[in-house]
Amino acid sequence: MSQQGYVAAPPYSQAQPGAMGYGPGPNQHTYGHYGGQQQAFSPPPPGMGPQMSPHPSTPGGMPMTGPPMAGHQMSGPPMGASQMSGPPMGGPQMPGPPMGGSQMPGPPMGGSQMPGPPMGGSQMTGPPMAGQQMSGPPMAGQQMSGPPMGGAQMSGPPMGGHQMAGPPMAGQQMSGPPMAGQQMSGPPMAGMGGPYAGPPGPGLGGYQQPGLGPNSPSGYPQQQGQFGGQMAGGQMAGPQPGFPGAFPGSAMAGPPQKKLDPDSIPSPTQVIEDDQAKRGGQVYATNVRGQVPPLVTTDFTVQDQGNASPRFMRCTTYTLPCTAELAKQCQVPLATIIKPFAVVPKNETPLYLVNHGETGPIRCNRCKAYMCPYMQFIDGGRRFQCAFCNCVNEVPVFYFQHLDHMGRRMDFYERPELSLGSYEFSATLDYCKNNKPASAPAYIFMIDVSFTNIKSGLVRLLCDELKTLLDNLPREEGAESSAIKVGFVTYNKILHFYNVKSALAQPQMMVVSDTAEMFVPLLDGFLVSYAESRAVIHNLLDQIPDMFADTNESETVFAPVIQAGVEALKAAECSGKLFIFHASIPTAEAPGKLKNRDDKKLVSTDKEKTLFHPVKGVYEQLSKDCVAQGCSVDLFLFPSQYLDIATMGDVPAHTGGAVYKYSNFQVETDGEHFLRDLRKDVEKPIGFDAIMRVRTSTGFRATDFFGGVYMNNTTDVELAAVDCDHAITVELKHDDTLSEETGAFMQCALLYTTVGGQRRLRVHNLSLNCSSQLMELFKSCETDSLINFFAKTAYRAILKQPLKSVREILVNQTAHMLACYRKNCASPSAASQLILPETMKVFPVYMNSLMKTAPLVGSTELSTDDRAHQRLAVMAMGVEDTQLLLYPRLIPLHNMELEGEAVPSPLRCSEDRLSDGGAFLLENGHALFLWLGQACPPELIQGLFNLPSLAHLQPNTNVLPELDSPQSRKVRAIVSSLMQQRPNSMKLQIVRSKDKLEVLFRQFLVEDKGLYGGASYMDFLCYVHREIRTLLT
Ligand SMILES: [Zn+2]
């Protein structure tokens, strides 16, 4: 089995096993070949359904449900199957400059290897950096003994380190706690060059350093003997003797220090704004193979013209390399991120439902791929050639249609499966369990009524809410009421089931105290229609809080609760979801009992991974049982201390469920937050009991799957449920050579049960380009998708490998990808220049942010449960969510337009962007802060809080009062629109600068040094640049 190119040294690099771990290090193997087993290609095994009957009985008699064709489909340019296989890359659709990439002149570091001590003042006059050595990636917890720059502003041409006569750096110490105890023996980089500023230069169309005039060829201009020289607009800072972390005794005599202008390194907010300006508000028609969609952050309208909307499928690159060798050489991961139930905005067409009646969908006889726009009809329309396996199939008589002069079927526009990228088929009985029609799913609410939940007021709050919430259960489109059945269980050490049959005047409770052999004591009356049993259910919900009001019981069970839910669904022969509201670690004597195994001493050791491992045994089996039954588990946790989320979250993680956590829950401060989450969760669009299969054309295939899935074999992805926010990241690998001419096709087919109990197939198709030119691949990369892939692979890898190795691999691969671009695609330039592909110019900032996330940071200050929680959450995230998580929105509020709906443009996530006289919102999809500077304008404070000044604001305020002032209306509107857009609710935290809580806020300023370790963006970029240079020499 090969290394799959992840860590293998490319031809140009010198393996340096010791220092940076290039080459397969002892621990890199597992993560290194994240593609899983390499297997010989064989015809795919039979698909999820049986073979289609070759003898359809009713020719022509299969109506399509819904108007298959709408005007809007016709209005686009004719798309035609012929275009699908046409030349790669529709020129006009190709975003981004053809070439060039981003150039950042200036060696971040001067010399190459400098084993010597960090520079003290006296050494500053020598060649500043003759060979520094860094023993690890900057974030790996080593102490950066020097900032990239001295601390002054430098916006002009950078200085070549080796030409610098002045002190290259101030010897500042990274003040974040070291993470992995690595020591960097030299300054990370000296004289990091920098002006990487400004908009793309006109020349190459890439992101080019403005300092590079025609007269200044790439590279460092000669310096005038000292650090800094003439920088346009550069602010010279004076010596900074008191620079925090300066080396003891090293007085910073000598030339003033300069700090690299942060505006000179690629800006995520700028990239987002530019894409919005260029492609925002436009219609994105999907009729071009290998077309790169707008960024996830851009507002655009999708028109399906033969490829799935990017809302459903996004790729790390839209041009696959033709060979495995090329893929290995560039190390750019090939993957697609599929969100099968992504919400389609109101102005886009919902998926059409195709019904072929009893024959079921048309499929390829050999590989079972479903009819789609890529199938080629031949022989006058009597046969079609499969785009995936090339098998030639007979067209069933009822499906026959003549071809037009272009070789296209005459009914092309009338059939979604011939002209669209995404659509649904009605599934026949053959696609149902045991050949029996599916039934509508059930939602079971399982409430921990132990002391903690009663005392906090949670139980009462929840029961009150359910009375209205259950009116909003998801329903089939057009249906009057929801078909979903509901059931109720309360529990502590024992379980209470409720009979809420509509005929009853009072609900009846049945107790099961033997939790070792879980069974459901009643069938009839447990799962009911809410509409029919409303009165009895309300009666029950009124009684529950009082029934347990005086409880002293603090012990709970957990696994038996899930078991009970699955058994109930089994008995009812339906799929469904368990909503479990649980407070504490389950210590009562029962299967799945847990104990506190939190151990901070393991942090930063080889055993740290065990903190993320679920306890084996009971929960593994439960996951299997749940998936087999189509039972998803959503867990709402209300802990006051450790409760082993790694284990408790294991079943949700394998069943497409989610884990929500409200530490030290109090109704007053967290109630609304919890209820918003609950409402979203109960109401969201969802499918159950799903099997997903990704088929590909010959030459490559799907090898690995990440996120909320369960795999019994290597191809069928089982999902107990999949909702509108749930994304599965699929890794792709070569098993042969791909053809530039034919391109590459993917088809994701998801068989599932609707909320109305119908069995359906949802099909998403996507066509990609193939090229033997790496440049084409880099031009078609998508940074947001890449980072989603890296996040999921890294979060899986930490189950097996030390964090330090995982972080090193991430940095190494970043450097490899960029070095490969530099070597093969960029125009010749001085080695000192950092040149990034245009499509990946902000990749380093996301990567650095990823490495600073709680799961990847070895810090004893972080809660083990929080780390495990974040790990599980990210595994099922889509591209939008990982992008936002890794680069939060920082929205200035102090100078916004108060009228209108415009939201101020976000700023870069750095302390530098804050101002004492300002107010800022920061959100990342999970946390939401309102930060108020000490000198925040009084009229803003007055407008938002009706208080004369900031000093009057009570600490721990976490609501914005509803005031009738323009400021209040505007800020509340922004907050509520953010809440609406995000999958999760967020708890607003109001923080004044210099408050204690501020530290919580600052950890989200991801361009800065990490609070718990991890480099600043600038330092990271310098470090990566240095690695690239090493690879290139
Ligand atoms: Zn086929």
Automatic annotation (TrEMBL):
Keyword list, A-Z: Cytoplasmic vesicle, Protein transport, Transport
Compartmental location: Cytoplasm, Cytosol; Cytoplasmic vesicle, COPII-coated vesicle membrane; Endoplasmic reticulum membrane
Stretches with biased composition (Low complexity): 28-39, 49-87, 118-129, 211-225, 244-256
Residue ranges of domain Sec23/Sec24 trunk in the record: 440-682
Chain intervals with Gly residues compositional bias: 226-235
Domain Zinc finger Sec23/Sec24-type: 361-399
Domain Sec23/Sec24 beta-sandwich: 687-771
Region spans: Disordered: 1-101, 118-185, 211-235, 244-263
Family assignment from sequence similarity: Belongs to the SEC23/SEC24 family. SEC24 subfamily.
Name of the protein in question: SEC24 homolog D, COPII coat complex component
Species the sequence originates in: Gadus morhua
